[in-house]
Amino acid sequence: MSEPSYTYIRVSKTDALESSAQKYRHLRLQGLESSPESFSSTYETEAAFSNDDWIQRLSAPDRETFICVAKAAGEQDAPGIGDWVGQVTLRGPMSASEFSLPKEAGQGAINADNEERWQLLGLFLLPAHRGGGRGSRLCREALNHLQRCQPCPRSVHVRLMVKPDNQTIVQMYERLGFVHTGQCTLAEAMRAAGDGHLLPSDTSDPKYSNRSGIIMSSHLHRI
For residue 81, what pLDDT is reported? Predict the structure, then answer.
């Protein structure tokens, strides 16, 4: 069987939104079921989302969603054709206060006036489509979008939070130019992803309060 071809797209917030929401739901639930360790959310939580919830996720003004699309050999090269097999999301622009973390996280000072701030999150590829640099290319699509979507501000701070046991992903981010800037808790990672409402009222449990996640950052410059 021939290797599929892959393209990388930004999901429109208006065009074919109902269809996109269904494809996104299918991809997310596959990921949460097959690789729960890749997500801070759970299959049970997102399986309960309504269709409107999925549409709202894709159309939210503070989110940009990017998809890896696999097309079988000989399949028509047209919008809407192909299987959604990977995703990554940008959340932002975030305010300086929203982007800030406690001193013990080690993130350092935030440039409140002269930079735009985004969180990179939710990178995932279905197991059958991993390898071949596809995760890196998907991230590059998102980062390139930030550099070309508008001219100002010139400086863009992109941050991500990743589990420490996923060294393959950490090394991929390093090759993309991200550097280690601190350590985070699961509660901080969920809030940074915009999922703070999914946290329990008491986050003192070590599951949420242990400072073991890796914070990485990259600074982009718009031309």
Answer: 78
Q: What is the number of other CB atoms lying within 10 angstroms of the CB of residue 31?
A: 23
CA distance 109 to 99: 10
Tokens of 31: 């990921």
State the residue range of the domain holding 159. Answer: 5-221
> pLDDT tens digit string along 34-74?
888 777 788 998 999 999 999 999 999 999 999 999 998 76
Residue pair 85/27 in contact (Cβ under 8 Å)? The answer is yes
Total domain count, the chain: 1
Per-residue tokens: 13: 């917030």
Q: Considering only CA atoms, which of 170, 179, 7 is closest in space to residue 80?
A: 7
Q: Which amino acid is at 67?
A: I
Q: Global pTM?
A: 0.93
Question: Please, what's the largest Cα pairwise distance for the chain?
Answer: 54
Cβ atoms of 8 and 137 closer than 8 Å: yes
Residue 131's pLDDT band (boundaries 50, 70, 90)? very high
Q: How far apart are CA 33 and CA 44, in angstroms?
A: 9
Q: Are 18 and 55 in contact (CB under 8 A)?
A: yes
Query: What does the block give as tokens for 129?
Result: 């489509």
pLDDT tens per residue across span 113-126: 789 999 999 899 99
